[in-house]
């Protein structure tokens, strides 16, 4: 009986040990399993985090690349795909009035991140008049007309059936209006030989019909600077210089082409009937000659932005740096209302008493085009139609007309101080 008791005790003791072993094995398996699960989750989480970071920086690269292109006036498509280290970013650009919205989707190992940047357009050039003239004044002759207001720091002279469908202002103590017909109000120190359909403000008046109220002994109007400064033009030239053409010279275009931003180090000649698309500012170090029915238009990617095309040879602004537009050339916007092509000449012959013409436009020129010659003379003739003209001196003849658009009061450009884009906000979607 005693031996049986001992055996039972040994059996119970062995069973307890076995149970303990099994229990600790079970606990160990749970711990190991849990540890493995945690490790797996941590490893997966770490992998996903790494992929997420890669997709984020890929998206960031996409928006930064597109923002750089737009800010610097470079060419771009509304949808771009960027490959970076085997990962991809799809970037889109949406025009939102005066802002652009850039959205990029980055993808890495099935992880997707989105970034968005808003670009705002800086303040634009303001053209408040159909024609604005410096001290050289304006001459209108042979059925020339301006549909809009005329402002001059010099004399306003009309010959042979001219008309201004708006107000006329000749500023300063020597301001004069002579031989002009205005459907609006006239402001000048002296008014002679004119027809004014509304009121007249003046110091002296003679041989003039005023249908409105006369205001003798009125204060002279203050003179005003032209809307574009040389500093603005220099910035547009800088923006154009990201690409340079040195040959052939002269640089001739007679086939369809897209140009800009670009600096052309010699004369530019466009002839025949090509379609020339302008995608950014153009600086021609010499003369510009466009004739024989080409179409000059802005790239659709520019949206509501305008572009400057500049003729400026700093070493010769007396007989060079001139622009000639002739023979049924048509100018088109980007497809968005409010975009224009602005031709700028830095020829300064007129300001220095010479007779060289900075810009000549003739023979059925039409479309969304503006011309500017802050130091020179602009001559418009032979049935052409432009949107706005500003120059040191202006002559309109032979049924030439300027048809002003109200949107010119706040004109935006693709680059330079008077336009261009800056970052207005960033967010991750």
Please describe the structure with a list of short key phrases separated by commas or semicolons:
single chain; 429 residues; alpha/beta; 3 domains; 22-stranded parallel β-sheet; 19% helix
Summarize the structure.
With 429 residues, the chain is α/β, with parallel strands linked by helices. The chain contains 2 helices and 39 strands.
Mean pLDDT rating? 84
- Name the quaternary structure: single chain
**Strands, total number:** 39
Distance between the termini: 84 Å
The total count of helices amounts to: 2
Radius of gyration: 36 Å
- Class from helix and strand fractions: alpha/beta
The helical percent reads 10-25%
For the sheet with most strands, the description reads: 22 strands, parallel
Q: Which overall shape is indicated by the principal axes computed on the Cα atoms?
A: elongated
Sheet-strand content, in percent, reads 35-45%
Low-confidence stretches: 1-6
Instruction: Please give the domain count.
Output: 3
């Amino acid at each position: 009986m005693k031996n049986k008791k001992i055996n039972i005790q040994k059996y119970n003791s062995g069973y307890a040990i076995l149970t303990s072993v099994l229990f600790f094995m079970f606990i160990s398996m749970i711990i190991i399993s849990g540890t493995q699960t945690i490790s797996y989750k941590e490893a997966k989480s770490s992998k996903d985090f790494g992929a997420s970071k890669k997709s984020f920086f890929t998206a960031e690269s996409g928006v930064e690349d597109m923002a750089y292109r737009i800010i610097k006036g470079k060419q771009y498509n509304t949808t771009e795909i960027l490959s970076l280290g085997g990962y991809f970013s799809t970037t889109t650009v949406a025009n939102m009035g005066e802002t652009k919205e850039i959205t990029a989707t980055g993808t890495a190992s099935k992880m997707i991140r989105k970034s968005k940047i808003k670009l705002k357009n800086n303040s634009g050039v303001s053209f408040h008049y159909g024609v604005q003239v410096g001290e050289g004044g304006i001459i209108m002759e042979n059925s020339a007309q301006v549909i809009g207001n005329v402002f001059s720091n010099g004399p306003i002279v009309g010959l042979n059936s001219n008309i201004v469908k708006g107000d006329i202002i000749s500023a300063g103590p020597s301001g004069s209006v002579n031989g002009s017909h205005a459907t609006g109000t006239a402001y000048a120190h002296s008014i002679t030989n004119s027809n004014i359909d509304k009121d007249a403000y003046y110091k002296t008046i003679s041989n003039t019909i005023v249908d409105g109220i006369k205001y003798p002994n009125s204060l002279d109007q203050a003179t005003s600077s032209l809307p574009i400064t040389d500093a603005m033009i220099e910035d547009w030239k800088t923006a154009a210089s990201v690409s340079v053409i040195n040959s052939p010279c002269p640089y001739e275009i007679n086939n369809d082409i897209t140009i800009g931003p670009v600096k052309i180090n010699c004369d530019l000649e466009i002839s025949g009937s090509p379609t020339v698309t302008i995608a950014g500012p153009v600086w021609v170090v010499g003369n510009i000659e466009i004739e024989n029915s080409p179409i000059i238009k802005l790239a659709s990617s520019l949206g509501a932005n305008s572009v400057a095309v500049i003729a400026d040879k700093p070493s010769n602004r007396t007989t060079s740096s001139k622009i000639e537009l002739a023979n049924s050339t048509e100018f088109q916007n980007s497809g968005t209302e409010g975009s224009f092509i602005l031709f700028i000449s830095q020829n300064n012959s007129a300001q220095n008493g010479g007779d060289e013409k900075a810009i000549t436009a003739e023979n059925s020129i039409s479309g969304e085009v503006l011309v500017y010659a802050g130091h020179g003379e602009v001559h418009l003739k032979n049935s052409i139609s432009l949107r706005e003209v500003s120059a040191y001196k202006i002559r309109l003849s032979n049924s030439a007309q300027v048809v002003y658009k109200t949107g010119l009061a706040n004109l935006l450009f693709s680059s330079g101080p008077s336009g261009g884009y800056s970052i207005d906000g960033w967010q991750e979607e």
